[in-house]
Amino acid sequence: MTHHRHRTRAEERIAELDASPAALTAEVDKLQRELEAAQQEAAENKAGWQRAAADFQNYRRRTEQERDATLGLANEALLSKLLGHVDDFDRALANMPPELQDVGWVEGIIAIDRKLRQLLDSEGLTPIEAVGRPFDPHEHEAVVREERSDVAEGIVTAELQRGYRIRDRVLRPAMVVVATGGSDDNNSQPKQEPTNDYSGGIN
């Protein structure tokens, strides 16, 4: 009695295959096209991912720049408010009677002023030099023009309020007196220009 072995599914698939050269070539061409399509899709997906990664990096950089700019503006606003108190220290120390300079509590105030200056310096705030320098409209605000024969025209002769620069930008210009050439009537009285009222001064 002859027993016929049942063929496996794999053997049935092999039997169904057309093994002719033409059929094999067609199958290879089909697989090649599928491979190329898969490679193209992979390349497009990679390019899309790279664009998304670049967009995210740009977004993060813009966000950090905007955050830094916001913090910088807030810091500058706070420092601008603080300058009013710095001016008070300037006036108080400039007008201190000599007999009080060795008093203990005055020395304490001088120490506080020194710490305040250190704080300003640590925040990148530096005073603008004015007296003896040529008038610079970017750093100085001329509130008085004074006829002087002993000083070249355009030189700052006095500082009424100290100006400050924060890093490479002017936070507040210095309010100054500027020398002009002598007049024919030798009038040496200062010429007051229109300006906001100012009380106090820096020696």
Describe the protein's architecture and organization.
With 203 residues, the protein is α+β, with helices and mostly antiparallel strands. It folds into two domains: 19-123, Hemagglutinin Ectodomain, Chain B (Alpha-Beta Complex); 125-197, Roll (Nucleotide Exchange Factor Grpe, Chain A, domain 2), CATH 2.30.22. Helices cover 50% and strands 16% of the residues. The chain contains three helices and seven strands, in the order αααβββββββ. It has a four-stranded mixed β-sheet, with no helix packed on it. Strands 1-4-5 form a three-stranded antiparallel β-sheet. The termini are far apart. The model is unreliable at 183-203 (pLDDT under 50).
Rg calc: 41 Å
Query: What is the straight-line distance between the termini?
Result: 129 Å
Percentage of residues in strands: 15-25%
Q: Judging from the principal axes of the Cα atoms, what is the shape?
A: rod-shaped
